[in-house]
Amino acid sequence: MKVLDLSQDFSMHTPAFASYTGPSIKWVKRLAFDKAGGQEITSTLHVSTHLDAPAHFLSGGKFIGDLPLDWLVGPACVVDLERMGIGDYDLYGPAHFERWEKDTGLRIERDDILVIHTGYHRYYPENWADGRAGVDETRYFIRHPGPTREFADWVLARGLRWLAVDAGSADHPMNTVIRRLRADEAGLAEQKLGRSLDEIFPLADYQVMHTALFPHDVIHIENLGGRIDDVLDKKVMFGCFPWRFQGGEAAPCRAVAIIEE
């Protein structure tokens, strides 16, 4: 059995999502003076590889501590969208995943976990797997591809368990607060897509991957990375291991792929 780490690093330099505070880490005890080292961390939860719970977007939704461990481990299809030519600001939808089934001969089954590979993990500042050689924080957070409501509806129709993505959000960046914060990039996205963002992402669809899916407990990992390139276009056992966090709307997690050798 081979266990592959699909998590990104966490450190004081790890960027949080837009409008969230990143981590602050300090030493509160030193070995020389206290005979033990001790650290204190202050951070929001949407930092590095993390799992969103339904409570993140749903009043009365489940918290991280409510999610059974065996539900967080299961068969996963790792779909490589990068090889299909998906790039900056692009949209993806059901057709890409159905094409993947035809190309690979694999089937995305009901209750499967769906792992989405865009290739943008390599731009994340904490991408340890290739020595941070391609870091581009703006491209990572602002320009990664993403879905529309059509994909969210398809996920529910196919009965998928939950999702994971190697990008800053499971939603398209222009369907998040980033669209307002970076109006310059929104203009570039409209040029690339050839349509108004208001047309592509109407107000009712704002952050649709959260608002439409979380009421059904179809949640997701964001900022996946690590050795994800080693499992592309395969069906693997996949596990997510967050804190046993009672009352937590999200939590850092270790994401792993398990391969039988």
Could you please describe the fold and organization of this structure?
The protein is an alpha/beta fold. It has a single domain, classed as Glucose Oxidase, domain 1, CATH 3.50.30. Helices cover 20% and strands 23% of the residues. The protein has helices at residues 31-34, 94-104, 137-142, 149-157, 178-181, 183-193, 197-200, 208-211; strands at residues 2-5, 24-29, 38-42, 50-52, 73-80, 91-92, 113-117, 146-147, 162-165, 220-222, 235-242, 250-259. Strand 11 (235-242) and strand 12 form a beta hairpin.
Which helices and strands, and how do they pair?
Layout: E1 2-5, E2 24-29, H1 31-34, E3 38-42, E4 50-52, E5 73-80, E6 91-92, H2 94-104, E7 113-117, H3 137-142, E8 146-147, H4 149-157, E9 162-165, H5 178-181, H6 183-193, H7 197-200, H8 208-211, E10 220-222, E11 235-242, E12 250-259
Parallel strand pairs: 5-7, 6-8, 7-9, 9-10
Antiparallel strand pairs: 1-12, 2-3, 4-10, 4-12, 5-11, 11-12
Note the main attributes of this structure.
seven-stranded mixed β-barrel; 261 residues; alpha/beta; two-stranded antiparallel ribbon; globular; Glucose Oxidase, domain 1
Describe the structure concisely for a colleague.
Helix content is 20%, strand content 23%. With 261 residues, it is of the alpha/beta class.
What is the straight-line distance between the termini? 5 Å
Show unreliable segments. none
Structural class: alpha/beta
Overall geometry: globular
CATH fold label: Glucose Oxidase, domain 1
Number of helices: 8
Q: Helix-strand pattern, N to C?
A: EEHEEEEHEHEHEHHHHEEE
Please state the average pLDDT score.
Answer: 97
Please give the domain count.
1
Q: How many strand units? A: 12
**Which assembly state applies to the chains in this document?**
single chain
- Beta content comes to 15-25%
CATH architecture: 3-Layer(bba) Sandwich
Task: Identify the CATH homologous superfamily.
Answer: Putative cyclase
Instruction: State the helical fraction.
Output: 10-25%
The gyration radius over C-alpha positions equals: 18 Å
Characterize the main sheet. Answer: 7 strands, mixed, barrel
